[in-house]
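Mods, move this if it's the wrong board.
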Amino acid sequence: MKSAETAHAEIAAMSYEQARDELVGIVARLEGGQADLEESMQLWERGEQLAEHCTRWLDGAQARLIAHESRGEESPRNPSATPDDSESSTAEDPS
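Not the wrong board. Structure tokens:
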């Protein structure tokens, strides 16, 4: 079993995607109901730490975007989206 400090440092070093993926796995294990009570509690605690890390990461990203916008800079675009993607999704009428 890892110490709390080691686990905290390990999570702090994770990218958002790494933490999110591990959290998704923990949720699946807990929902599966195969873990005993002790393991379930450990998974829950780890999940809480991962969720907190993800929230801090997203809050930081949001603050950066707000700072860019307040300086009159454009927000970074989704690099995989083409310029027409955002326009076509709003221009199409599903009815």
